[in-house]
Amino acid sequence: MDLPTTSPGGGAAGHGAAGAAGQCPVDHGAPAPQATIPATELPGSKSHAVFQLLNYWTRPQSFIEKARSQYGPRFQVSIRLPPRAVYVLTDSEDIKAAFTAPADVLHTGNGSATIEKYTGQSGLAWLDEDAHRIRRKLLMPSYHGPALDRIANAICEMATQDVATWPRGQAEPLHPRIHRFTLHVIREVIYGGRPPAKWEQLLDLLQEMMRFNNSMASPMLLHKMSPRGVKILRAIKPTGVDRFLKLREKADALILESIEDHRASNFRGDDLLSVLLGITHEDGSPLTNAEVRDEMTTIFLAGTETTAAAIAWAFVYLSRHRQVLEKVRAEIAEGENDTYLTAVVNEVLRVRPSIPNIIVREVKKPIVIGGVQYEPGQHLWISAFLMNRDPQLYDDPDVFRPERFLNTKPGMYTWIPFGGGRIRCLGDKIALLEMKAMIREIVTQCDLIVADQAPVRARSRIVVNVPADFARIELRDRVRDTAMV
């Protein structure tokens, strides 16, 4: 009986065939199979999930950096309630393997539970495999081509209009104003040039509702709790749960009203709402109002919180790196290209990715990544923050140095502020346009003054990290030398 062996080409060869060639049936030059360990054996803190969650919420950067320092590139944390392990990937090859895994092996639809209290569960972010691919393809026209040109023009106009109204001569947190700007941009994405009649009212509700993300109660899975549990939380006013749910109810009513108005108008353009109203299920039925609402609230949340955080961090770094700021100004004045501005944006997103730990992947079929066997039901957490600061990938990774991107394009699997693979952010181009437009407007019109040049630590705001002081900066109108004009 022939014994199966591994041939150099990877196929099985029989003893008889090898013997006929006068060779040993064992390929001694073949690499030894990589040893694997079960994910449950990965190292991690033994502290209770409550303490880990508190540490992560108050100091997310130091929490995750300390874990890698103690446990290496693969470890587990427990920052969810009820407690369960989340397995963290920080190695670029591990992350590439996760991004390129077959669609039926790793799912993201079950990994967004933290934001379901806003978004429901029927939007693109909750779809996997063919359903995700089909919906994504249908939504693409709202983010690219003529729609992107329209949005780009609107972004420039909005940046000019907004910055002109921001107060001068006093230090104040810029993040709330930036967040409002990003909500206006998403209005253009969703409604195009036909915003709902009650847009300003909806805008105020959305921004106020999302302030709940600053609360330590925001990670709670309210939609999965018993009615009694939610009632108890609503009674505890400091949690902010009662106020959040009341605001959500009002915002939902206005969103549904805007859907009905758009549906009744019979207008169909390249705006997201028009595209959504044209989508049908396999049986030919249109998306329900609830399904349309879920897509809209997903982008109202994900499309604003992420970009607002990135722009806020950009101002934090520019206010503390005068040479970088002056180089951006000089390039804008020359007007030939935006090469250095692009490098600045790329570097901001490297050191402060908007979502530092990308939406959890749930394992649906067994998979080995980096010598670790992950089983169905386990959750993988890709740390963009830690990978982007890997000294094996970036020299002086903690240093803010835009020049590192002047002659090098960001790597697909070594620079991942927008995620990767099949579910990479649909609105990445829009976010980059927003960052550039806001930076151009601020640095040409204003000086950025900070009383304290010390680094600003991060704080959690649901799934994003924002400056702990919400980018508290004083803006002063620039004094130009008219003799030089």
Tell me what the structure shows:
With 485 residues, this protein is an alpha+beta fold. 46% of the residues lie in helices and 11% in strands. It contains 17 helices and 15 strands. The strands form five sheets. The protein has a five-stranded mixed sheet. The chain has a three-stranded mixed sheet with strand order 3-10-9. Strand 4 and strand 5 form a beta hairpin. The longest helix is centred in the middle third of the chain and has 32 residues, at 289-320. The N and C termini lie far apart (91 Å). The model is unreliable at 1-21 (pLDDT under 50).
Approximate strand percentage: 5-15%
* Low-pLDDT residue intervals, each spanning 5 or more residues: 1-21
Tertiary shape: globular
Q: Major sheet: size, sense and barrel closure?
A: 5 strands, mixed
Nearest-integer average pLDDT? 90
Helicity range:
40-55%
CA-based gyration radius: 25 Å
Structural class: alpha+beta
Sheet with the most strands: spatial strand order: 4-5-11-8-6
Count every beta strand, where a strand is a DSSP E run of 2 or more residues: 15
